[in-house]
Recover the amino acids of this structure.
């Protein structure tokens, strides 16, 4: 392996991208639509006493809550970068609160339309910041 002596294994070109395939397509609307579904399911759950319906509603609601968390995490980890977090110092806290509202202590763990409304409010705050950054 004498021919490798003195050669660097460092890449000649360094590149960076926000994901493996930089598509640039992000939108908090994906999380909002799932959260709206959660709120509607919670309302229907509260208005219906049929045990089979309620069981199905809970399963679907929990699936939607996981999708909300997924869509928020993609925005948080792939779209938003250090300059965004510097300009909007509350952004980490917003994402933390929103994902918790979608999680077991929030809409995933209960069928309260008021909690779903809180989740929608957090997503709206994130959305406002997102669109400000898209126009910058």
């Amino acid at each position: 392996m004498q021919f490798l002596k003195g050669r660097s294994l460092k890449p000649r070109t360094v590149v960076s991208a926000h994901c493996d395939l930089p598509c640039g397509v992000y939108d908090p609307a994906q999380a909002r639509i799932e959260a709206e579904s959660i709120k509607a399911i919670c309302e229907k759950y509260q208005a219906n006493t049929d045990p089979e319906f309620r069981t199905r509603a809970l399963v679907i609601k929990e699936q939607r809550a996981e999708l909300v968390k997924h869509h928020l995490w993609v925005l948080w980890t792939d779209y938003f970068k250090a300059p965004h977090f510097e300009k909007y110092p509350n952004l980490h806290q917003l994402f933390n609160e929103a994902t918790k509202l979608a999680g077991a202590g929030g809409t995933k763990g209960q069928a309260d339309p008021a909690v779903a409304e809180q989740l929608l409010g957090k997503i709206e705050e994130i959305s406002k910041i997102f669109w400000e950054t898209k126009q910058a």
User: Anything to note?
Assistant: The radius of gyration is 21 Å. Residues 98 and 117 are 11 Å apart (CA to CA). The mean pLDDT is 89.
